[in-house]
Structure formats: C-alpha cells, structure tokens
Amino acid sequence: MLTPDNFQYAMETTQVIHEPDRRIETFGVTRFEFEILSEPMDSVGKVCIRRGEVEAQKPKLIKPDGFNDIELDGFDPTVLRVIEHLKEQGLDLSFLQYGFHFKCSDVSTEVIHDQLEAVSDKALEAVRLSGNPSLAIIQSVDDAWEVGIMKFTLDMIMKSADINRFDFKRRGLL
Fold first, then answer.
1. What is the band of 76 on the pLDDT scale with cuts at 50, 70, 90?
2. Which residues pair with 136 in a beta bridge?
3. What pTM value is reported for the model?
4. What proportion of the chain, given as a percentage, has pLDDT over 90?
5. Is residue 77 within 8 Å of 103, Cβ to Cβ?
6. How would residue 27 be classed by pLDDT, with cut points 50, 70 and 90?
7. Beta bridge partners of 79
8. With CB atoms 3.0 to 4.6 Å apart as the test, which of 18, 92, 98, 131 could cross-link to 137 if both were Cys?
9. Residue 11: pLDDT above 80?
10. What is the DSSP string of the chain?
11. How far is CA 153 from CA 14, 52, 110, 136, 169, in A?
12. Helix 81-88 crosses helix 4-13 at what angle (to 10 degrees)?
C-alpha cells in the first residue's frame, strides 16, 4: 500500500534521465516505451529494471470535470494521487479537460547485480546507440515505481500542451 509519505518521496525523487524525442499527439494515440530503474530497499548492489509501454489515447470530448475523466488502465489505482498532488500544488492542468485514457502494459522486470549509476550509464548508452525516439529512461523508487511512470506521463503532457493547444486552435476546437 502506498502511504502519503512514500508517494511524496516518489514524486520528489523520480527523475527522467532520458526523455523521448516525441511529444503527446494531439489527435492520435501516443505510445512511449519506458525503462524505469530503481534500487530495492532491502538489497545492496541490485537494480530493478522494469520495461514496458505507456499509452495516452487521443482525447474524445472536452468536459468541465476533466480530471474525473482521466482513466488508468494497468496502473495501481493509488497512482491517481499524482493528479491530486499536482492539483494541490496549484498547477494549471486545465488543458487536460478532455478525457485522457492512460494504459500501462507489457511490463517486464529484470534484476541486475550492479550499482544504479552503472546501470543508468549503460541504459543511456544503449538508447543513444538505438536512437529510439519513444524511449524514456526513468529513475524512481522501487516500491512506488508506478508513481514515477505517472509523473513522467503527466510531465510529457505538460510539455506537449503548447503544441496540442495550437493544434486545437488551428482546427477551431478551442
């Protein structure tokens, strides 16, 4: 169970060490691959690597109660606290008032016997060599790794907002 303290700690310590080259599509489905690196609390010299995809489906309708329409598929329900936390911080997330549906899928887990810094360096080198434009590499807290994924996803939405807003205005939707 995710406690408020664990949640807060995960929000404060999650870092995106490699951001995808792409942004959230305005009128289409966007898929990002992720590798989330974390150190299990009870193990020294071990790093847990979770790999998977997160998907933001295209918005459907603009509704005044947009946050009630954010759906999570494949996430622990307590991850909704990320959204509540951002609202409590006074961030203007009004642009999200059109019903996002997030899906986290195909998550696999691997445990590596190495130091976090070394695993991070190898992951960064691998993404540089592959040139994968949709891969995010994230460091987070092991027992709250889903909070790290949601924080990354919401950060990407915020970074995409200006482009999305322009697209909506261009089509006369805002």
1. low
2. 34
3. 0.74
4. 33
5. no
6. confident
7. none
8. 18
9. yes
10. ---HHHHHHHHHH-EEEE--S----SSS-EEEEEEEEE--TT-SSEEEEEEEEEEEPPP----TTGGGG-EEESS-GGGGHHHHHHHHTT---GGGTT--EEEEEEEEEEEEES-HHHHHHHHHHHHHHH--TTEEEEE--GGGHHHHHHHHHHHHHHHHHHHHHHHHHHTT--
11. 12, 13, 22, 10, 23
12. 70
Six token digits for residue 153: 């996803």
Provide the sign of the torsion angle of the four alpha carbons 136, 100, 77, 81, taken in this order.
positive
Asked if the model's pLDDT at residue 77 lies above 70, the reply is: no
Residue 25 has pLDDT above 60, yes or no: yes
Q: Report whether pLDDT(36) > 90.
A: yes
Closest C-alpha among 66, 50, 67, 58 to residue 149:
50
Q: Measured between alpha carbons, how far is 51 from 49 in angstroms, rounded to an integer? A: 6
Partners of 72 in beta bridges: 102
Say if residue 117's pLDDT is above 80. Answer: yes
CA distance readout (Å), 144 to 61, 65, 129, 139: 31, 27, 29, 11
